Amino acid sequence: MGVKYAGLGLLMLLALICDYKIYRIKNAVVVPFIVAGILTNTVLGGPEGLKSSISGILLPVLLLIVFFALRMLGAGDIKLFSAVGSIMGAEFVMYAMAYSFISGGVIAVLIIALRKNGKERLRHLVAYIKSCFLSFSLLPYTDFEDKSDGAKFRFSYAIACGTLIQIIAAFYL
């Protein structure tokens, strides 16, 4: 089990560094951990370990694809969740995702409070919802390439927080 947590820690560290430097989480960071998670779980748990890894990889993709399609979450974030799932399994990644979204909400509120742009963000959300209803379609929520609007933060920070909370919860609950 220590090998899994060491791998998870290294994955988070590399993903945070990559996301901080280039605002993306590269495949070169997550793919080796997905492969390592599959191999480790297969060696340690046999067919059940393999099943655990595969379900841990697929669960984030299936649950979060809508957020990607709406441009509310980047592909790298989903792949990072899949790498976590590959290493730790579906149940772990499910809780880590829940804690990550809660952490993301806390981070977003803090950013809005610090930037004092709550009214602007609320107007943007209302305009987005209105546009979706008027056009009868789901439109992209944001442009990831535009870093100047003050509305984005690196979600890998929330993923790292959520994963850490799940590690603590797994040990103490």
UniProtKB/TrEMBL annotation:
Keyword Cell division assigned: no
Stretches that traverse the bilayer: 28-46, 53-72, 92-113, 154-172
Single Gene Ontology MF annotation: aspartic-type endopeptidase activity
A GO cellular component annotation in the UniProt record: plasma membrane
Matching Pfam families: Peptidase_A24
Record-annotated Prepilin type IV endopeptidase peptidase domain positions: 9-109
Record bears the keyword Transmembrane: yes
Gene3D superfamilies named in the record: 1.20.120.1220
Keyword list, A-Z: Membrane, Transmembrane, Transmembrane helix
Biological processes annotated in GO: signal peptide processing
Family affiliation: Belongs to the peptidase A24 family.
Protein name: Prepilin peptidase CpaA
Species per Swiss-Prot/TrEMBL record: Anaerobacterium chartisolvens
